[in-house]
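FYI - complex with iron/sulfur cluster, inputs then prediction.
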Amino acid sequence: MKAIKDTWLIQIEITNACVFECTNCTRFVGHHKKTYFMDLETVEKAIESLEGFKGGIGIMGGEPLLHPNFYQICQLLRKKVSLEKRFLWTSGYNWKKYRSIIRKTFQENVYYNDHATPLQKHQPILIAIKDVLEDKAYMEELISKCWIQEKWSPSINPKGGFFCEVAAAMDLLFDGPGGYPLEKGWYNKTPQDFKDQIKRYCYNCGAALPYPAVSNKEGKDYSSISNYKRLEDLKSPRFLKGCVKLVDRKYTTKEIKEFAKDWQPWNYLGEEKRKSYYFLYGPFWGFIVKVSKNIRKKIKKIKNKHKNETCINL
Ligand code: SF4
C-alpha cells in the first residue's frame, strides 16, 4: 500500500447527499438515514491540515454541488490552495448556478461523471472479503494491492482523516470510531502507521476482491453476511426497500483467480466509452447539452423513486 503522503490527491468529502442512488456506491448513498453537509470550519481545518501535502486536494461527495455553502467552500479553496492543486468531482447537478465560481476555482480540474447510464458498473464494496474467502494468505495479498488505495485517494470526512476513501465511508455508515484528528500533517503516515485502519475496514470491504462488477441496471447492492446483518441492524433505508442482495457463500482461491483474469474494476463505464469533460474551454457546450439532458432524466428518476419507493436503477 502507498503511504498517504505519496498519493496523488486527498479528498475532502463535503457531503454524502447525492441526487442519485447508484447500486454499490462507494459512499453507500441510500443507506444513510441522515445526510451531512460539512461545516465551513471543518472544511477550513481539513484544508489547513493538508499544508505541505504535495498532491492535489479534491472536493467530493455525494454530490458536492448540493452543499448549501459550496460557493464559500470555493472561496476558501482559492484563498488557501494553489490553482493546480484544486480538483472537483461532480455529476453536473446545479452546474448552471455555480458555473462561474467553478471555472474560477478549478479551471480544467473538474472530473465529471453523470452516473446516468444504466451500463455503469460498480464493484460490490459490501461483500466483506473475510466472509467469502477462506484463503487468508491470498486475502492479505489482495488487500495489500487494493486498486482503490493504489489508484485513488485517502479522504477527510466530518469524522477525521482516513487512509482510504472507502474506509472513510464505511466508518461513517457503520458508526466507527472515526479517523485521525485533523492536525497539521496527519497525512504523514505509512502503511505501518495506519495499520489500525487497515485492520478495521479492509477485511469488511469487497473492493480488493476480484469479484465481477455489478451493473447499475440490476439495482441491488451485493452484500455478504456480516455487512448484511449490520445493514439490517442499522435499518438502512436501502436495505428496508429490498435493494440489498445477500451473497452467502465461500469462494475458493481458484474461483477468485479465475475472476481476476479479466477484472478491471476501475473501468466502471460498462460497454460505454469513457466520456471525460474537461469542459471549460472546447467541450464546454457539449457538457451543457449533456447536463441539461441528464438533469431531466434525474428529475424523472427522483420523482419515480418517491412514487414507487423501490430500488433505483440508474
Ligand atoms: S480494501 Fe477497501 S478499505 Fe481497504 S484499501 Fe481497499 S477500498 Fe480501502
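The beta strands are 9-13, 56-60, 86-90, 110-112, 121-122, 155-157, 160-162, 214-215, 221-223, 244-246. The domain at 4-308 is CATH 3.20.20 (TIM Barrel).
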